[in-house]
Amino acid sequence: MSRILALSWVISAAVAAIAGVMLAASPNGANQTISLVALTALPALILGGLESPAGAVVGGLIIGIAQVMAAGYLTQDSYEWLGLGFDQVMPYLVMILVLLVRPYGLFGSKTVQRV
Fold this sequence. Notes:
Distance between the termini: 13 Å
Radius of gyration: 18 Å
Shape: flat
Number of strands: 0
Largest sheet: none
Oligomer: single chain
Structural class: mainly alpha
């Protein structure tokens, strides 16, 4: 089991490295949309729990709703003290608030594994 887990991490790291090299070598460079999607996916994954695919989906829905509502409720007056990009910061605020209450995410479980 540990060999399979190690092999999956090696394969995912190799694929990520190849994708990073290909993205950096493209003529247009890194697209801003790709960066924003990646930066929003991380809080959704952590919010749901790292070992739960269903938790990642629920975390993505919660993060998406929070981000859209933050963008929708911002008015011209709130830009003065929140800033223009507050809707991009909102997923991290939600993640921090949930992790203060449930440190392993919404669907994460506290597992103890002796090595």
